[in-house]
Amino acid sequence: MEEKVFNLYGALANAQRHIASPKAKYNSFAKFSYRSYEDIVKAVKTPCAENGIGFFVSDDVVLIGDRYYVKATATLFAVDHPESGTIQATAYAREALDKKGSDQAQVTGMASSYARKYALCGLFDIDGDSDPDAMDNREEAVKTSAPSGGEFTAHCRSCGTRYAFKDASMYNGFIERLVREPCCQHPDWVIE
Fold first, then answer.
1. How far apart are CA 183 and CA 186, in angstroms?
2. Which member of 20, 39, 80, 109 has the lowest number of beta carbons within 10 Å of its beta carbon?
3. Closest C-alpha to 75, from 46, 53, 100, 98
4. What's the whole-model pTM score?
């Protein structure tokens, strides 16, 4: 009987279909959502294990022109089939010339985290969305403007918070206040 050859690319493709690493953290100072290196590692460990693959990430500091960059390389391998070779993805991050409040080791560490994060995103084809197979891609008719008169209810599609409003003016004031005091990391209010 012929032994089946382990397909590293097939295992990676199958793992990719089961990885979801949304940008679940929010930087309120810079006002953007992001995912950390640790978030990505956590998201890929189980799909990799289920497909018989593992990974590691290594860093090098390289001089390009007159600037230093951290070069991160994410390497994928078959756990029980070393003959299958490896697949690699590389990303670079430049050290900032000056980062207030950080010593030089912290600046290098920040560049390393950034490069590692994008090397893993490249290797596992992670984008800013959740699992595309779980998403309903049909356009949904969403009512975001308040009705001209009377009471109504609205809710946040992200966190589920729900409020009743007496009129449009009360709702519009609430929406303006959300900029300063959001109900959650990604407020998305709709009229019911």
1. 8
2. 80
3. 53
4. 0.62
What is the band of 137 on the pLDDT scale with cuts at 50, 70, 90? Answer: very low
3-state SS of 58-101 is EEEEEEECCEEEEEEEEEEEECCCHHHCEEEEEEEEECCCCCCC
Strand 152-156 relative to strand 86-94: parallel, antiparallel, unpaired? unpaired
- The token pair at 174 is 């609430």
Distances, alpha carbon 155 to alpha carbons 1, 63, 118, in Å: 61, 52, 35
Domain ranges of the chain: 8-131, 142-191
User: Which amino acid, one-letter code, is at 26?
Assistant: Y
Between CA 159 and CA 178 the distance in angstroms is 13
- The per-residue pLDDT of the chain, averaged, comes to 82
Residue-wise pLDDT tens digits, 41-64: 999 999 999 999 999 999 999 998
The token pair that represents 90 in the structure block: 């590389």
| Token pair for 78 | 């078959």
